[in-house]
Amino acid sequence: MSTKMFTHLDDSGAAHMVDVGKKTATVRQATAVATVQTTPEVVAQIASQSLRKGDVLAVARVAGIMAAKRTSDLIPLCHPLALTKVTVDFALQPEQGRVQITAICAVQGVTGVEMEALTAVSVAALTIHDMCKAVDPALQINGIQLHEKAGGKSGHWHREHVNHG
């Protein structure tokens, strides 16, 4: 076995998937956040579901959940996980022209779900962008970051300040 047990590099320096086979399964959860910055008018249209493409938040929620489930297909060397929970929620801030996105992913497993939560908020934000770009081509996606993680050997970690971009 490699002396670099939890690295994506083997003894020769080549990339490989980390062997987590001897780790103990625990409940693991991660929360990620992102911000879509647009105009107050676009956020109002999202809230009223009056955009021509339909219910932006419903589509973005499903896209985020689907993306979390497919993270290992998108991120090289990421382990496929049988997720036990995926939520994608939105907080509209019309006055600031913002949509805050929060994803929570959980698993009973031997590796964490940080990448799944980050993938969920990223794809949800990209979906909002796709559905709103005709109305606001200057829309921005900001502040994609891990907010919290729990479980596993490293225990609980929480970001003190969330940067909303």
Automatic annotation (TrEMBL):
The active site is at 130. Its EC number is 4.6.1.17. Pathway: Cofactor biosynthesis; molybdopterin biosynthesis. It catalyses: (8S)-3',8-cyclo-7,8-dihydroguanosine 5'-triphosphate = cyclic pyranopterin phosphate + diphosphate. The keyword Ribonucleoprotein does not apply. The keyword Ubl conjugation does not apply. GO terms for molecular function: cyclic pyranopterin monophosphate synthase activity. Residues 17-152 form the Molybdopterin cofactor biosynthesis C (MoaC) domain. Keywords: Lyase, Molybdenum cofactor biosynthesis. Substrate binds at residues 77-79, 115-116. It is an enzyme of class 4 (lyase). Belongs to the MoaC family. Catalyzes the conversion of (8S)-3',8-cyclo-7,8-dihydroguanosine 5'-triphosphate to cyclic pyranopterin monophosphate (cPMP). Homohexamer; trimer of dimers. This is Cyclic pyranopterin monophosphate synthase. It comes from Pseudidiomarina homiensis.
